[in-house]
Every structure is written in C-alpha cells, then in structure tokens.
Amino acid sequence: MVKQKKKAPGRPKKEFVSKKTKTQVQAWPGRPRKNQEHAIDPNQIPPAIVWHVEKSVDDSKRKDMVILLLFLLSFILFVVSLYFTFMRDQKANTLTQDEIAEITNIETGNIDYTMPISTEMPPVEDQETVVIDTTTPPVEQNVTSEQQMIIDFYQAVNTIDMSTIYTLTEGRLEESNVFKTYYNKRWLSMFSEVVLAPKITVTNIQEKSSIDNPDIKNFTYTLEYTIARNQQKFTEERSTVLIKKWDDRRIGKLMCETKGCSMMPFFNPEKYK
Known about the structure:
By secondary structure, the chain is α+β, with helices and mostly antiparallel strands. It is about 35% helix and about 15% strand. The protein has a 4-stranded antiparallel β-sheet with strand order 1-2-3-4. The longest helix is centred in the first third of the chain and has 46 residues.
C-alpha cells in the first residue's frame, strides 16, 4: 500500500489592514420603531421654529377675522339694497304729476298708446259697486260700423264697462302702460265723479285718408264733457286707428290731438273736483 505524502501547510495569509484613518461616527438615536414613541423635549425646539408657529397661528386668526368682517359688510349691503328696492317698488305704484306729464307729453298734448308693451296682464278690477249715470250720449245718424265702434267705446267709458272696453281694443293697446293708467276702473270712476251727464259725447267722426291698406283705417272726432263743479265745458280733438283682425276690427291706437290735452280733466280728474 502506497502512503500519501502530507502537503506542507504553506505560508500563513496576512490580515488586511486599511491604511485610511478611521472617522469617529457620532451616535444618533436613529429612526424610532413603530411601536416606540419618540418624545421631543419642548426645551429642545429651536426658538425660530416656535416663532414661526406662533406667527402662523396669528395670521390664521387675522384671516378669519377679515373673512368675518367681509361677510358682515356684504350682509349689511344686501339688507340695505333690499330695503331701497322695496321702497322703489312701493313708490312706483303711485304716479306723480311729473310722471303723468312725462307719459302724456304736456308740450304737444299727444298721448301715444303704441308705447313699448310690457308682459304684465291687465289689472284685475275690484268687484265694487260704482253708482254711475248710464245716460247714452247723443249718437250721430247714418254712421258706419267703424264710427259706431268709436261711439260704443266711449259709451263703455261713460258706464265704466270694462268688459266692453277690452273687447273693443286690440291686445297691444291693452298692454300699453298709458292705457293701463287712464282706462282702468279706478281712474274712470274718478273722472265720472267730476263730469255731468251725459259725460263724454262724441261728435264729428271723420275718416282720414290713409295708406292703401283696407285693414287700417284712421278716424278723427271730437269729445265734449262738462265739469260738474263750475259748469265749465271742455273739448278735445282726438284720433283713432282701427285695425282689422280676422273678420273684426279693433281699436289699435288712441291719440289726443289738442295741445295741452294732458292737463284736461280726463287726465287730471283730481284737480277738477
């Protein structure tokens, strides 16, 4: 049997030693574990951080105060504007003499009922009982149907027959502001109280030459009435446009042609009581 030779142990390995100088690492608590509370000593917080936090809190309070003041100011402005709007609406329900003069145009005496229309419906009249004189005014003989329509309209004005007044007038005229002012039940009642029977009389109805349109006819006529207080007689020259709508004609325009007409009793009955 051949014997195996033992290997020589050889030269021992040298231990590696770094020639760089070692730096001393300061101890640091490190990141706390999830289940470990990391308490901070208030005395260790830098003063700069404390000042910054206090300043942030003061700024936040200041902003809250400014927002509160702005809200109160806007609320006060809203209440004031609501009050003035309410007072303006209340004032708009009563027509002053200046407003009446502006509507009726004192300088020319013309009353144009073709003003821009509003979307309001005609006012609902009160069902109050009014004592009136139903005496029929003198009627011209041999009148046409259009002339008779004008006479019927002023008979309805004399008797304050609102149903007939709205039946004989065209929709745009009914919706005009001036028509609503002077041809409502309250205004006609005031006028009826200051004039003598037979109240308004219609005379001298004449058809005017107009454009070649058979659906539109122009008429002039004279209104007469007498004041009850001093027996003073008034005369107004007026004109009317009749518009044909389907098979019927309707009053589409009313004009007072007399200068200073807006100062007469029909438009100012309170002055002639």
